[in-house]
Design brief:
The complex is a heterodimer of chains A (584) and B (352). Chain A has 584 residues and is of the alpha/beta class. Chain A contains 17 helices and 22 strands. Chain B is built from five helices and 26 strands. Chain B has a 17-stranded mixed beta sheet that branches. The chains are: A alpha/beta (584), B mainly beta (352).
C-alpha cells in the first residue's frame, strides 16, 4: 500500500498567497499528531519579490517552536531525517500561483458563454476575453473580433463551448476554423491549449482542425441539454492546466520539486480531498460542505459519498474584497453590523486589508466590520457554489441551503477570530445551514495542508484530521420556514448522556444556545411547529437524533430560513447585537 | 510570533527595476549602457488586424482566393493598392479589390485576407537614471540605479519623472485646486493628501509630472485611476498624514529629479526614486529583523502612519479590545508617547 511508504516525520506546508503555514507531523504514542506549527506572511518580509522568503520563515518559526533543525544550509528542508534534523517527507499545497487566464469562445452569449463562465468558477481561473459566434452577424467582422480578442488578451487557455448533444455541428466547425486562423497569427512560442467542452459529436473534427495549431483537450459537453449543466469534466481539465501552466512557474520551485514526497497540489484540491474524506470517514449520508475563506480567493467544497464539487471564487478573498467597493455593495456588509458606521470606514478597511493583509483589528468595532466582510464573501461564494451542487445536493426549499451533516470552515480570518461564538454566527448568517448540522472550524488551516498528505500516508492524514485539525463548535438545529416572531418554532427535549434532561420551547426569531461540552453526547427529540420543516421535507414533522457536543454546544437557530433581517436599521442593529450576545 | 512587513525608505540604496514592453519589439541598449530616466530603451508596435472579405467582393469561391491575389502573405500593402484582381467576362475588363488599409498581409483563409496594421508605436523608457544590467531579449532590460527610494503602498498605474516640490504646509496639507498654477508644470508635488476631484483635474490641466501623497480619500480613488499623470500614496487610504520619515526624505531632495515607478517582478511595491551620485555598498536584501532600536511605522489604526523606534520587545502577550492576544512591540512615537503596538500592525522601515 502506498500509504505505508512514509512512516517517519512529515513536514506539510500550505503555501498561500498571503500566508505560508508549516506543520510538523510525527508519531506520538503510536499515532500521528501535529507536533508544531509555524506561519509567516508569504510576501512583505523584504522588498524583493520572492515567495521563498515567507516559505522559509514559516519553517524557521516551526523550528523555533519545536527546537529542531529542519532547513539545510541552502534554505531547503533536509530530507530524510537524521539525528533529529530534517524530516522524512515533505508535502506542499499551494494557492500562490496566479489564476489561469482563460478566453471563452462559444456560440451564444446567453447559453454557451454563461454556462462556461460558471464553469470557470470551479477553479483558479479568470476570464480575460470572450467571443460569441452569434454575437456578430457579419463574417469578416466576426473573424476580426475573434482575432483581436485572442491576440490582445493573450490567454493561457481557450475554453471552447457550444452546442447541446445532438445539436447542429456546423457553427462549431466554422468557429474551430476561425480559431485555427487566429492561432496562425500567434507569435509567442507557447501557444495556449484549447479545451473543447461543446457538442461531443464535433470533438474529432474540432480536434483535427485545431490540432495542427495547438494542443487540444476534449471534455464532456458543459451543456449537454438546455436544462442540464455539467462542469465536472471541465473542472478536471482546468485543474490539470493550472498545475501545468501556473504552478510549475512558481519562483524557486525547481529545487523544492526534487524534495517533494508527493506532487504539489493546489490548495483548493487539497481541501477538497479532506472534505471528501470526511464524508467517507464518518459515513455522512447527507454530505459535507467545507468553506475556506482565504486571503485571495474563497473555496467552497460540497461532498457526499459519491459526488463532490469545488467552487473557487477567485479574486474574492478576505484581503481581496475590492469587489464590494467597486460594485458599490458596501450596504450588504453594513447590514451585519450592530452599530452605525459610514460606508467609507468599511471601504477603508477593505482597502487597507488589500494593501496590508497581515494586520489584526485592535478595536471590537473593526473586528465586527471584518466579520461582516467575511459574511458577505461567504455568501457570494455560496451563491456560485450552490449552482454547481444542485445535481447531487438538491435543496428541498428554494433559496435554502440543502440539509447536510457537517459544515467545516477554515481560512485566515475564520481561524483567527478569538470568540468561537462569533465564528459560528458568521457561518450561520452567511451559509444559513438548515436542519440538524454539525459545525466545526479548523483554526490552523491544517485541513488544507493534509489533503496533500492523504495519498502518501492516509493513516497519518486521518489520525491528524481526527485529533488535531477541527474544533467542534457544536450542532445547529435550524428549522426551515418563516413564522411571525414570538410564535412557537419548535419544542425540544434534550436527554444528556449523564441522565439529565431538559425541555425547551423556542420561539420564532430566537437564537439560543444550550451548553453541551465537547465529547459529551445528547439525544434531541425535536418537534417543529407547523410553520417549520426540520429538513426532512414536511412541516411539523419531528425527529430524534443523537448529537455530540462542542465548544458552544447545541445552537438552536429559529430565526427562519431564508434568514430575513429586519428592514428598519435600528431594529436590525438591535437584533444583530442580541444575536451576538446570545451566542457568546 | 507575528512578524512585521518591511517597507523601504532609504536615503541611499541600489534599486533594480525590470523594464518590459507589452509586446515584442527592439531593445535599443546594451548591458552597461548608462541611461537617463526619460531615455527610450526599447520600441515596439501595437498591432491591429483587419479582415477583408475578398471572395465576397469578387464573387469567387473560397478555394479560388489564392488565384486572384496579387499580394501574398508576408508582403506589405499600401492603402489604395490593388490586393486582388479578377478578369471580367468581356475582354479587357477586370474587377479589382483595393486594400482599404496599409499593413502587412499575415494570413489568408475562410475567404478572408487578414492584414496586420500598426495601431500605435510604443516606447519603453528607462524609468530611472542608472545603468543597464541585463537585457530581456525583444522586450526590455533590467536597469539599476543608485539613490534614495521611498516605497509606497498604492499607485494609479502610471509612471513618470519630474522635479520634486514640497507643498508649503507639508505632510498634513491637502492639495487644493487653488494651490495649483502653471508654475507647477513638470513638478512632482509632495503633500499630505488631495482635497477633492477638482484638485486632481486641475493638476492634469496644468500638466504636473506627478503627485505623491500620504493618504488618499477613498472617494478619490476612481478619479485618481483616470488621471493621466502618476499618483502614489505612501501610507494608505483615508485621511492620515505622510509619515515624517518619508516626508523628511522628500524634503531633503526637493528640487531634484525623481521617478515615480510601478512595482515589477523584482520589487512588488511602487516607489519614488531619486538618483544620487556616489558609490555605495549595500548588502543583499534579507528578511528584516525587528529589534530594539529598529525604526517602525504603524500600519493599522490607531497608529496607522505613525513612525517610531522600538524600545522593547516584551515577552508577554497583550489582550486587545478586539479579543486577539498578540505579541507587541513597545514603540516610542515621534511625539514622545510610548505605546504598545501589535507586531502584525507594524512595518519595519528598511533604510539600507
Amino acid at each position: 500500500m502506498v500509504e505505508n511508504l512514509i512512516m517517519g516525520s512529515i513536514l506539510s506546508i500550505d503555501w498561500g498567497s498571503v500566508e505560508s503555514k508549516a506543520f510538523l507531523l510525527d508519531k506520538a504514542d503510536g499515532s500521528y499528531r501535529l507536533l508544531a506549527k509555524g506561519r509567516a506572511p508569504t510576501w512583505g518580509l523584504t522588498s524583493e519579490e520572492n515567495p521563498l522568503v515567507g516559505f522559509r520563515e514559516a519553517i524557521t518559526r516551526l523550528e523555533q517552536a519545536v527546537g529542531r533543525k529542519i532547513l539545510g544550509e541552502q534554505g531547503y528542508p533536509l530530507l530524510p531525517e537524521r539525528e533529529m534534523e530534517g524530516v522524512d517527507a515533505l508535502t506542499i499545497s499551494v494557492s500562490l500561483a496566479p489564476p489561469l487566464r482563460v478566453m471563452l469562445v462559444g456560440l451564444s452569449e446567453e447559453l454557451s458563454l454563461s454556462v462556461a463562465r460558471e464553469a470557470l468558477h470551479s477553479y483558479y481561473a479568470q476570464e480575460v476575453g470572450s467571443f460569441s459566434f452569434l454575437g456578430v452577424p457579419d463574417k469578416s467582422r466576426r473573424l476580426e473580433h475573434l482575432i483581436k480578442t485572442f491576440l490582445s488578451c493573450k490567454p493561457d487557455v481557450v475554453l471552447m463551448v457550444g452546442g447541446t448533444e445532438g445539436g447542429a455541428m456546423e457553427p462549431l466547425i466554422e468557429m474551430a476554423n476561425m480559431l485555427a486562423l487566429a492561432y496562425s497569427l500567434w507569435t509567442d512560442t507557447e501557444r495556449p491549449p484549447v479545451v473543447f467542452a461543446g457538442n461531443s459529436a464535433a470533438r474529432s473534427q474540432v480536434a483535427e482542425i485545431l490540432g495542427s495549431r495547438t494542443e487540444v483537450r476534449v471534455t464532456d459537453n458543459v451543456l449537454p441539454s438546455p436544462e442540464e449543466e455539467n462542469w465536472g469534466s471541465v473542472f478536471a481539465e482546468l485543474e490539470n492546466l493550472y498545475q501545468q501552466l501556473k504552478m510549475s512557474k512558481i519562483y524557486g520551485l525547481g529545487p523544492l520539486r526534487s524534495l517533494l514526497s508527493v506532487p504539489m497540489i493546489p490548495s483548493a484540491s487539497s481541501f477538497a480531498i479532506i472534505t471528501r474524506y470526511l464524508a467517507h470517514m464518518y459515513g455522512l449520508e447527507k454530505g459535507v460542505v467545507g468553506v475556506d475563506l482565504g486571503g485571495s480567493n474563497t473555496t467552497v467544497v460540497a461532498a457526499t459519498k459519491e459526488h463532490f464539487s469545488i467552487t473557487v471564487r477567485d479574486e474574492l478573498g478576505f484581503n481581496k474584497a475590492l469587489y464590494f467597493v467597486e460594485e458599490d455593495h458596501l450596504e450588504n456588509i453594513m447590514r451585519w453590523l450592530p452599530f452605525e458606521v459610514e460606508s467609507g470606514k468599511v471601504a477603508e478597511i477593505i482597502m487597507e486589508r488589500h494593501l496590508r493583509p497581515g494586520t489584526v483589528p485592535v478595536s471590537k468595532e473593526e473586528l465586527l466590520i471584518e466579520e461582516a466582510i467575511a459574511r458577505e464573501i461567504l455568501r457570494e461564494a455560496l451563491l456560485l457554489a450552490r449552482k454547481q451542487w444542485r445535481a447531487f445536493l438538491p435543496s428541498p426549499h428554494h433559496g435554502v441551503m440543502p440539509p447536510v451533516d457537517l459544515i467545516t470552515a477554515t481560512g485566515g480570518i475564520l481561524g483567527s477570530i478569538p470568540q468561537e461564538g462569533e465564528i459560528a454566527l458568521i457561518l450561520l448568517d452567511a451559509l444559513q445551514p438548515a436542519g440538524v448540522v454539525n459545525l466545526a472550524v479548523d483554526k490552523l488551516g491544517l485541513s488544507v495542508a493534509l489533503g496533500t498528505l492523504a495519498p502518501l500516508n492516509t493513516a497519518a492524514a486521518i489520525q491528524v484530521l481526527e485529533m488535531d485539525t477541527f474544533t467542534r463548535l457544536g450542532v445547529v438545529v435550524a428549522p426551515i420556514g418563516v413564522a411571525p416572531e414570538g410564535e412557537l418554532a419548535l419544542r425540544m427535549k434534550v436527554s444528556f448522556d449523564d441522565g439529565r434532561s431538559l425541555e425547551v420551547d423556542v420561539k420564532a426569531g430566537a437564537l439560543e444556545v444550550i451548553p453541551l461540552p465537547p465529547k459529551r453526547k445528547a439525544v434531541l427529540e425535536i418537534k417543529p411547529s407547523g410553520y417549520f420543516d426540520l429538513g426532512i421535507g414536511a412541516k411539523g414533522k419531528g425527529a430524534k437524533v443523537e448529537v455530540q457536543g462542542g465548544s458552544l454546544g447545541i445552537i438552536i437557530d429559529a430565526r427562519g430560513r431564508p434568514l430575513r433581517l429586519p428592514p428598519s436599521p435600528r431594529d436590525r442593529m438591535e437584533k444583530i447585537q442580541k444575536w451576538l450576545w446570545e451566542i457568546g | 510570533m507575528a512578524f512585521p512587513g518591511v517597507i523601504r525608505i532609504s536615503p541611499y540604496t541600489l534599486l533594480r527595476k525590470e523594464r518590459r514592453l507589452p509586446v515584442m519589439g527592439d531593445v535599443l541598449v546594451q548591458p552597461g549602457t548608462s541611461v537617463e530616466a526619460s531615455q527610450v530603451i526599447a520600441k515596439g508596435f501595437l498591432s491591429d488586424w483587419v479582415c477583408l472579405d475578398v471572395i465576397g467582393e469578387l464573387n469567387v469561391s473560397e478555394d479560388q482566393l489564392e488565384l486572384f491575389l496579387i499580394k501574398k502573405p508576408g508582403e506589405e500593402i499600401e492603402k489604395g493598392e490593388e490586393l486582388a484582381v479578377k478578369k471580367g467576362v468581356l475582354p479587357f475588363t477586370s474587377y479589382s479589390y483595393i486594400s482599404p488599409v496599409s499593413g502587412r498581409i499575415v494570413a489568408t483563409g475562410m475567404g478572408q485576407v487578414i492584414i496586420e496594421t500598426v495601431s500605435k508605436e510604443v516606447e519603453l523608457k528607462a524609468g530611472l537614471k542608472g545603468t543597464v544590467k541585463e537585457i530581456i531579449p525583444y522586450y526590455g532590460a533590467v536597469v539599476e540605479g543608485k539613490g534614495a527610494v521611498v516605497e509606497t503602498v498604492w499607485a494609479n498605474g502610471r509612471e513618470g519623472q519630474g522635479i520634486l516640490r514640497i507643498l508649503e504646509e507639508g505632510k498634513t496639507s491637502h492639495l487644493r485646486a487653488d494651490d495649483l498654477d502653471p508654475g507647477n508644470r513638470g513638478f512632482i508635488l509632495v503633500c499630505g493628501g488631495v482635497e477633492d476631484e477638482k484638485a486632481l483635474e486641475k493638476a492634469a490641466d496644468i500638466r504636473v509630472a506627478g503627485i505623491v501623497v500620504g493618504s488618499l480619500k477613498l472617494g478619490l480613488r476612481k478619479k485618481a485611476l483616470s488621471m493621466p499623470y502618476p499618483i502614489q500614496v505612501t501610507e494608505g487610504f483615508g485621511d492620515i498624514p505622510m509619515s515624517s520619515i518619508a516626508f523628511e526624505l522628500f524634503r531633503g531632495y526637493e528640487g531634484q529629479e525623481a521617478s515615480l515607478l510601478l512595482g515589477d517582478s523584482i520589487a512588488r511595491r511602487p516607489c519614488v526614486f531619486i538618483p544620487v551620485a556616489g558609490e555605495i555598498i549595500t548588502a543583499e536584501a534579507s528578511p528584516g529583523v525587528l529589534k530594539v532600536g529598529s525604526k517602525v511605522r504603524g500600519s493599522r489604526d490607531p497608529y496607522r502612519g505613525k513612525c517610531g523606534v522600538v524600545q522593547e520587545l516584551p515577552r508577554y502577550e497583550v489582550h486587545l479590545e478586539s479579543g486577539y492576544t498578540v505579541s507587541v512591540a513597545r514603540v516610542r512615537l515621534e511625539d514622545g508617547e510610548e505605546v504598545e503596538i501589535p507586531l502584525s500592525n507594524l512595518e519595519l522601515i528598511d533604510e539600507t
